[in-house]
Design goal:
Blueprint: E1 11-14, H1 20-31, E2 35-40, H2 43-53, E3 60-64, H3 70-83, E4 89-92, H4 107-117, H5 119-134, E5 138-143, H6 156-175, E6 181-188, H7 207-220, H8 225-237, E7 242-245, H9 247-258, H10 263-271
Parallel strand pairs: 1-2, 1-4, 2-3, 4-5, 5-6, 6-7
């Protein structure tokens, strides 16, 4: 496996491409000469992104479906296989959020999140690993989170999924060692996407509680998605196994490494709202 990944002329799948990091990845990949296969559950947003990123000599096709739907993923894989002989990059980026403690999170919401944030990654990888093996040099890029390294209170569902993505990716990387296929795990910190605005909240959450949660999210989700995408793509180009995105992600990862059991007190101080 070469030390650097060449993007020009390669075919890349990006899930969750209608907005946020996914849309920014599509822009960055198009600028590097990749042909794009973009997916999202939101067809209108997906079409707008595809129209924006298309360039002469490259393609940007769209497929609207839910990666949480196992049959939809299989159908998508069949459609892609019928049209494309090779897939070189798989960005498993699609994700959702659920707010609230474990006791306040319904079983249905917990399972819904796991079905997209973790099982979606597994399903897409299972569906496309065979064609990626036939494609020669390839890279699987799984978007975890800094909450796949630290585990904040109130994030039981989200952290469960993101830790699972991290473990799955690490084991798969070891299994594929010595092959032309690499596996990258990405741990973004606070990226300015709409994931918090779309989060499912506990049924008993008050309007004030929901508003406060969104306000705290707006203060912490600050890095523009294009900046995050550029960091990710530079890391993929270097075929890095792990990419931390943002100063906050680097700081929190250091805290967890230094204090693997007792880091939470320091994290709470780090995440506390700044006052003048």
């Amino acid at each position: 496996m070469s030390d650097r990944f060449e993007f020009e002329g390669r075919t890349a799948i990006v899930t969750g491409a209608a907005s946020g990091i996914g849309a920014a990845l599509a822009e960055g990949l198009a600028g590097r000469g990749c042909n794009l296969i973009l997916t999202d559950i939101e067809a209108n947003g997906l079409a707008l992104v595809a129209e924006r990123v298309r360039r002469p000599g490259m393609t940007a096709e769209t497929h609207a479906f839910d990666v949480g739907d196992a049959q939809a993923v299989k159908a998508f894989a069949r459609t892609v296989a019928a049209k494309h002989d090779e897939v070189h990059l798989l960005f498993n980026n699609a994700g959702v959020a659920v707010g609230g403690t474990f006791e306040r999170t319904s079983e249905a919401d917990f399972d819904w999140l796991m079905g997209i944030n973790f099982q979606g990654v597994v399903r897409m990888t299972r569906a496309f690993l065979p064609v990626m093996k036939r494609s020669g040099e390839a890279q699987i890029v799984n978007i975890s989170s800094i909450f796949g390294i630290i585990a904040p209170a109130g994030q039981t569902a989200y952290s469960s999924a993101k830790f699972a993505v991290r473990g799955f990716s690490s084991a798969l990387r070891h299994e594929l060692h010595g092959t032309p296929i690499g596996v990258t795990t990405v741990h973004p910190g606070g990226i300015a996407t709409n994931i918090a605005d779309r989060a499912r909240m506990p049924a008993d959450a008050s309007e004030a509680e929901i508003a406060d949660g969104k306000d705290r999210a707006r203060r912490s989700l600050v890095m523009p998605p294009p900046e995050a995408a550029e960091i990710i793509l530079r890391g993929v180009e270097r075929r890095r196994a792990r990419i931390l995105v943002g100063r906050d992600a680097h700081t929190l990862a250091i805290l967890e490494r230094l204090f693997p059991v007792t880091y939470w007190g320091a994290v709470q101080r780090f995440l506390a709202p700044k006052t003048d």
